[in-house]
Amino acid sequence: MISVSRNILANLFSKGWSAVMGLAFVPFYILLLGMEAYGLIGLFATLQVIFSLLDLGITTTLNRELARYSALSEKAQEMRNLLRTFEIIYWGLAILIGLIIYGIAPFIAHDWVNTSSLAPAIVTQSIRLMGLVLAFQFPLGFYAGGLLGLQHQVLNSLLQATDATLRFGGVVLVLWLIQPTLQVFFGWQALVSMVSTLLTVTILWRIMPHAPRRARFDVARLQAVWRFAAGMLGISSTAILLTQMDKIVLSKVLPLEQFGYYSLAGVLANGVALLTTPVFNALFPRFSQLVVIGDQAQLRETYHRSCQIMAVIIIPVTVILACFAPEILFLWTRNPTTVAQTHLLVTLLVTGTALNGLMNLPYALQLAHGWTSLVFWINIVSILIFMPLIFVLTSFYGAVGAAIVWCGLNGMYVLVQIQIMHQRLLPGEQWRWYRQDVVQPLVVALVVAGLGRWWLPTTSSMLVNALLLLVIATATFFATALSVTVLRQWMWAQLKPRLAGLRHGTH
How many CB atoms lie within 10 A of CB 281? Predict the structure, then answer.
């Protein structure tokens, strides 16, 4: 049996490394390109998410089906045919994305974004390069989903970490050596995307199980999975609308510079989201295998243990970012204006993102059972409630209003969706989820970080501030880890033999 713990650690490494790369070089982007240009980079991130709608649920379906097939024998031909079928569809969608963005680039440049120093021609060229980036980057997630489903998660983590290093760090070197322009920035992104995708597709096909016949487009494979894929399409389309509606509205109503500040706060919030992905990626295939073999007792324990691990990973980080946003932003950007414009947005956005992250494993459990309708209908209700709210609050409070809506939306998920889900899956376990898996570590993290906030002395030394924050963050993390059953049991299992050895050694 593939080690879930090893997969989680491997995924944490790659996502953590990606988060570090993404955060570390943002100040250099702003320094070399300017805040207005960084606002356009923020728009690119929004376009990435919007056009991920064209995934049509294929990546998650591939992940789930390859995981299920890998738990059964004599499924090699079906696995290869499924990959080939989805691959042909996916590359067609990638080309479509590139053509759409190329066509709408003049409209975005002239009629959507509000620029003051960037010429419309430069914005148009940059957006068209974004289309090229996305056309190559779009299939990368698909092939990564195949590697995850086959449980080659360590290999996938190495590939993702390499991609992040070249994408985020390499572009700073290119901007410095060649020319600090948006065209160079997105040109490099396109090159890295092309190389990463071609490398990943080659590796995935090499590790697929051998079959007696060549892989082919197979309509029967589509017929077997279309219901689940359609459900995933419904979820992804509504989720994209919910998660991107703030950015879509703000990119229109705010000056591009102000949208850049919101995007900057979003980078920190996205860092929290990146920490949730490794646990989801490791546990979703495992949940799928346990469901298909019908091991309900193991599924229940795996679910709670993994939810506690998720809480330990994201709650301390979120609490520290929320409580110490001004200090962290100043250490990061060293710009008082940026801190003043961004710190409240960071607190709100990371809080909402953490609530969303806590729902990842309940969501994975639903997908492992093939149950997509609950999330879809909750998203529909959320759109009807929160879409009007975002327009109202944005008109009154600007970017802060949008961030408030994000918190409210994800708080509703935690309060409502968990209750409904556990009526059908693992009945009665929602109270254990609230009490042991979430509230207990959250209270401990808030108490320790709150004491650190009260104790933190005022100092003008950047190094001293960084060290003090590191001490508080470390104490918060370890206290949170000790508050959950799964890690206490693990620590005791590690210590018990050593204590026994010490006792025997004294006699």
Answer: 27
Q: Kindly report the pTM of this predicted structure.
A: 0.67
Structure tokens at 195: 């190389």
The sign of the CA dihedral 248, 252, 253, 255 is positive
- Residue 105: strand, helix, or coil: helix
Structural tokens at position 488 = 């206490």
Give me 416's structure tokens: 């409502």
Name the H helices within 25-152.
26-33, 35-51, 58-70, 76-107, 120-149
Check if the beta carbon of residue 17 is closer than 8 Å to that of residue 159. no
Q: Which of 86, 191, 184, 103 is nearest to 141 (CA)?
A: 86
Q: Are 371 and 378 in contact (CB under 8 A)?
A: no
| Residue 372 to residue 483: CA distance in whole angstroms | 33
Q: What are phi and psi of 354, to 5 degrees?
A: -65, -40
Q: Three-state SS for 425?
A: coil
Residue type, 393: L
Cα distance between residue 63 and residue 313, in whole Å: 23
CA distance to 6, 280, 311, 361, 477, per residue, from 482 (Å): 21, 22, 12, 21, 9
Q: For residue 10, is pLDDT > 60? A: yes
In angstroms, the CA 481 to CA 444 distance is: 9
Q: Indicate the helix (H) or strand (E) that contains 306.
A: helix 296-323
Mean pLDDT, the chain, as a whole number? 83
Task: Give the closest residue to 125 by CA, choosing from 135, 136, 114, 133.
Answer: 133
> Any idea which of 18-27, 72-81, 336-345, 385-394 has the lowest mean pLDDT?
72-81
| CB burial of residue 177 (10 Å; 0-12, 13-18, 19+) | exposed
Given the structure tokens 């990606």, which residue do they identify? 18
**Residue 70 to residues 150, 209, 339, 366: CA-CA distances in angstroms?**
7, 9, 49, 20
Query: Which tokens sit at 265?
Result: 């706060």
Within 10 angstroms of residue 141's Cβ, the number of other Cβ atoms is: 16
Helix axes 58-70, 120-149, angle to 10 degrees: 20
Q: What's the rounded mean pLDDT across residues 348-371?
A: 90
Instruction: Give the pLDDT of residue 80.
Output: 83
In this predicted model, what pLDDT tens digit does every residue of 58-91 receive, in sequence order? 777 777 777 777 655 567 778 788 888 888 888 8
pLDDT above 60 (res 2): no
Angle at 201 between CA 219 and CA 148, to 5 degrees: 80
CB 402 within 8 A of CB 262: yes
Q: Within 13 Å of residue 13, how many CA atoms lie on the same side as its CB?
A: 15
Token pair for 13: 């490494």
